[in-house]
C-alpha cells in the first residue's frame, strides 16, 4: 500500500509556471498532476485516451474540429485517443491527467486550425 498524498499540498509546492509529473500508477495507467498557466502545443496521443480532472482554476481544451471545452474545479473530460487538442489556462490551474503509462505524445508543428 502506498502513502496517502494531499494533491493540493503537492500543487502548492510548485513554483514554476508549468509543471507536469507522475504522482501514481494504476495498473497500466499513469496519474499525472499538472500545475500551469499558459498553453501547451497542439498534439494527440495515437494509442491512449486521456482523462482530465480539474482540481483548481480553469482549464481550456481546444480541439481541431469542435468548440473549446471549459473545465472548472471538479469537472472532468475524456479525450479519445487520436483527438488533436491543446490545453491552455489564463489562471493558475491544477489538474489530474490519467493516461496509459506508455502513451506517446505527437506534437504538431503547425496549428491545425
TrEMBL record:
<dbReference type="InterPro" id="IPR052044">
    <property type="entry name" value="PKS_Associated_Protein"/>
</dbReference>
<dbReference type="Pfam" id="PF07883">
    <property type="entry name" value="Cupin_2"/>
</dbReference>
<protein>
    <recommendedName>
        <fullName>Cupin type-2 domain-containing protein</fullName>
    </recommendedName>
</protein>
<feature type="domain" description="Cupin type-2">
    <location>
        <begin position="40"/>
        <end position="88"/>
    </location>
</feature>
<dbReference type="GO" id="GO:0030145">
    <property type="term" value="F:manganese ion binding"/>
</dbReference>
<dbReference type="InterPro" id="IPR013096">
    <property type="entry name" value="Cupin_2"/>
</dbReference>
<dbReference type="InterPro" id="IPR014710">
    <property type="entry name" value="RmlC-like_jellyroll"/>
</dbReference>
<dbReference type="InterPro" id="IPR011051">
    <property type="entry name" value="RmlC_Cupin_sf"/>
</dbReference>
<dbReference type="InterPro" id="IPR019780">
    <property type="entry name" value="Germin_Mn-BS"/>
</dbReference>
